[in-house]
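Lecture notes, unit on protein representations.

Consider one protein chain, 133 amino acids long.
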Amino acid sequence: MIVVYYVSNNSSGKITMSWFDKHHIVYKARKITKKATMTVKEINDMLLLTENGFEDLINHRSKLVKQLEDEDRLYELKTEELIGKIIQNPTILKLPIILDEKKIVIGCNENELRCFLSRNYRQAFLMNQRLYY
């Protein structure tokens, strides 16, 4: 099952979900709030699918991340400590994060979201667009 992690004040999550709706793809929307925080298991599942671990997930434009980088503490944190900071403040993450059992897409990029389409759907789409020979 595809899961879309998003926060309500970020339009990218809404755009991503409307893209899935447009392509008739079933997904589970996982809104991250103060009451419905992320779990350690969810973050570990994301880390397992990334190529570069936290580096892929962390939003370096976040105020908290900049503060930790200025103090040279970001990369000194233990894994458990960084996961704790993400749970407390999910804006540390690049959102939306879309994943299933085998793939992860970080951010709202239509070209990357296509990996969730079936092979037959992609081939039919390309043939209709005259991009496939």
